[in-house]
Design goal:
The complex is a heterodimer. By secondary structure, chain A is α+β, with helices and mostly antiparallel strands. Chain A is built from two helices and 14 strands; from the N terminus they run αββββββββββββββα. Chain B is an alpha+beta fold. Chain B contains 13 helices and ten strands. The two termini of chain B are 16 Å apart. The relative contact order of chain B is 0.19. At the A-B interface, loops of A face helix 6 of B. The structure holds iron/sulfur cluster (2 copies). One iron/sulfur cluster binds next to helix 2 and strand 3 of chain B.
């Protein structure tokens, strides 16, 4: 009896270790990448729209959002907390799919008080330097791909808050669907753009360098517009082919596992010694 | 139109506070004692500037009955403006609901005109509120009920909170005359100006998705018309009783300056919003109350408290001054103030070219 009781913690410890290792191996790829990286899959298959089949093979990154620092009234009152991002790269085009939950579908701006749900993707115009996150800066501009449920898509250029300018002849196309109801209702917006487009202030999607990317979402029914928006930090698409995939996370999980096992082992040892003393 | 050569020299020591970076400030004085509520000004403005799609509900010039809820309904309580005279912190405001502006009604014109219906001409349905819906209702009990008309345009404020509210600097105050305009290329329809203006005199165009407002008819002031002549804003020129004076607040020889600065009888509406309007009003002067037998009693017909609420505490002195000057004329004396208020010479009413060569 006494022996079995002394053995129990050790057995539990081994079991936990096994679980930890299993967990490490089964961590999905998307969650295992370095922080702020959004993987880009080769676009094979159908990417003709937001619900096209091709998307099911593309890992999804969940990007946390928070209220943008801004001087507009109610800047801190935003409602969208995360956006799910997928990216696929074809021979000539980049496809992005953004999804987020929003219980109300706001697609009109045709009343004095109505605002439309909107989303935007921001890239540095010049990939070599990271612009200020809030709409770039005067010498460090951003190219924004904007979609609004009320007015469709626009390509914008900005060099600091309040400087947003609409670019003529937008090079992006967008396509959106809204599905489900209540809390699970979801907007799905697909962006398609040629990797390389003519025009000075348009971001070229690079072949062999990472590119920074950031996101913003507005909830129309909460009167969100302008600087009252939920925004991400800078993330990046890993086009340089650098570290990708699970090794980091697996390694971290293994270290954590070893640490847990050691703690359990030490605890078990301690319990056994206490037990011996008592008997 | 008269040109006063002294105008530019005189404005050196003007008491009028013209905004920083602004050469001169356009201004309008409206004598509320003359308004007959005919809405000619409203229609003149509407047909000139806001006939296009998306602006159906917009009245850059409106005339409301006071006491009354106004247009948009409840605008006086809708927030906006500044916390204090320091113009540091703005007050939060609200964007009025479509229902509070009133919807553009559909009328049964086609039935009557083309289908031979003998129904009366009337809105089809949904006519539950609209600009000046509470027309002539006023307040008070018979025989002492009262009301007056209040024509309103954008005040082209010296400290416009609409300008300050826009995160894109799409609104601005013109350097040459202080007219406040919306740059249609910069505006992205965010409507912070709509909530920021305490007078609710910026509107959102539902078709162009941009904000629009009274432009003080600047093309008319600039002689952009077919004959190259300068004209005062259409609301002023078209007004049958000619109750509006138009000119520059800093033109010390002009009647506007005299009414605002010397006699202090022209007052801004709701000075407590601290935007410092450049549209001023001669407050309404009503006969005292009557008893049921028709006897005059020494009680104000329009309660002073109500007028103070609209025009601030200076309304008491303004009404006293008007009363004193009236008395002088009644007794056969002369009063420059009364002459200004009764002037029918357009050259005096509209002094638009005084600073042209300055
Ligand atoms: S009245 Fe309103 S819209 Fe006009 S200048 Fe003043 S704050 Fe701006
Ligand atoms: S046109 Fe003149 S009298 Fe008629 S409502 Fe307008 S301001 Fe009053």
């Amino acid at each position: 009896m006494a022996d079995r009781r002394q053995l129990r913690p050790v057995v539990v410890g081994i079991g936990l270790t096994a679980l930890v290792v299993l967990a490490a191996l089964s961590v999905p790829q998307a969650a295992a990448r370095p922080a702020h990286e959004i993987p880009v899959e080769p676009a094979t298959g159908d990417f003709s729209g937001p619900t096209a089949d091709g998307w099911s093979d593309v890992p999804q990154s969940t990007v946390p959002l928070s209220s943008a620092p801004s001087s507009v009234p109610n800047a801190n009152d935003t409602t969208i907390e995360r956006v799910h991002v997928q990216a696929a790269r074809g021979e000539e085009q980049l496809y992005l799919r953004l999804q987020w939950h929003d219980a109300t579908r706001d697609t009109t701006t045709d009343g004095p008080r109505t605002f439309a749900d909107s989303v935007a993707v921001q890239f540095p115009v010049n990939e070599s330097a990271r612009p200020p996150i809030a709409m770039g800066g005067p010498t460090n501009r951003v190219n924004v791909w904007y979609w609004s449920g009320g007015t469709g898509s626009e390509e914008l250029l900005a060099g600091g808050a309040g400087s947003t300018t609409r670019m003529a002849n937008s090079t992006i196309t967008t396509n959106a669907t809204y599905q489900g109801s209540g809390e699970n209702a979801t907007w799905t917006v697909q962006y398609t753009r040629d990797l390389d487009v003519a025009g000075e202030n348009r971001t070229t999607i690079p072949e062999d360098e990472d590119i920074d990317v950031a996101f913003a979402v507005w909830n129309g029914s909460n009167d969100e517009r302008a600087g009252q928006k939920a925004v991400s930090e800078w993330h990046y698409f890993p086009f340089s082919g650098g570290p990708q995939g699970p090794p980091y996370a697996a390694l971290l999980w293994t270290i954590a596992g070893v640490a847990i096992v050691s703690v359990i082992a030490v605890t078990a040892y301690g319990i056994r010694r206490t037990g011996e003393g008592m008997s | 139109m008269s040109t006063d050569q002294n105008g530019t020299d005189a404005q050196e020591d003007t008491h009028i506070n013209v905004a920083d970076g602004i050469d001169h400030q356009v201004a309008m004085v409206m004598d509320l004692n003359k308004c007959i509520g005919c809405q000619t000004c409203t229609i003149a403005c509407k047909t000139l500037w806001t006939e296009d799609g998306g602006s159906e509900y917009m009245y850059w010039n409106n005339v409301e009955t006071k006491p009354g809820e106004g247009y948009p309904r409840g605008w006086e309580e809708s927030g906006g403006g500044w916390q204090s005279e320091e113009h540091k912190e703005r007050k939060t405001g609200e964007i009025p609901d479509q229902e509070d502006y009133g919807r553009a009604w559909e009328f049964n014109h086609s039935e009557i005109m083309y289908e031979g219906s003998d129904e009366p001409l009337r809105p089809r349905d949904g006519a539950e509120w609209g600009p000046n819906w509470d027309e002539d209702r006023g307040a008070g009990e018979y025989p002492n009920s009262y009301y007056f008309y209040l024509p309103r345009i954008c005040n082209h404020c010296t400290h416009p909170s609409c300008v300050e509210a826009c995160p894109r600097s799409a609104l601005y105050k013109r350097e040459e005359d202080g007219i406040v305009l919306v740059d249609q290329d910069r505006c992205r329809g965010y409507r912070y100006c709509v909530e920021g203006c305490p007078y609710k005199k910026v509107y959102y165009n539902t078709v162009s998705k941009k904000s629009e407002k009274c432009i003080f008819c600047y093309p008319r002031l600039e002689g952009e018309g077919p004959d190259g002549e300068t004209y005062a804003p259409a609301c002023a020129e078209e007004c049958p009783p000619q109750l509006r004076l138009v000119g520059f607040a800093d033109d010390e020889e002009g009647p506007i300056y005299k009414l605002i600065e010397e006699y202090e009888v022209a007052l801004p509406l709701h000075p407590e919003f601290h935007t410092q309007p450049n549209v001023y009003y001669i407050p309404p002067y009503a006969p005292p109350q009557h008893t049921d037998d028709g006897e005059t009693v020494d009680v104000d017909r329009i309660p002073r408290d109500y007028l103070r609420k609209l025009f601030g505490d200076r309304v008491d002195e303004a009404l006293d001054t008007i009363e004193r000057e009236r008395q002088i004329v009644r007794q056969g004396g002369e009063s420059e103030l009364m002459e200004i208020l009764q002037d029918k010479n357009p050259a005096d009413q509209y002094r638009l070219e005084v600073f042209e060569d300055g």
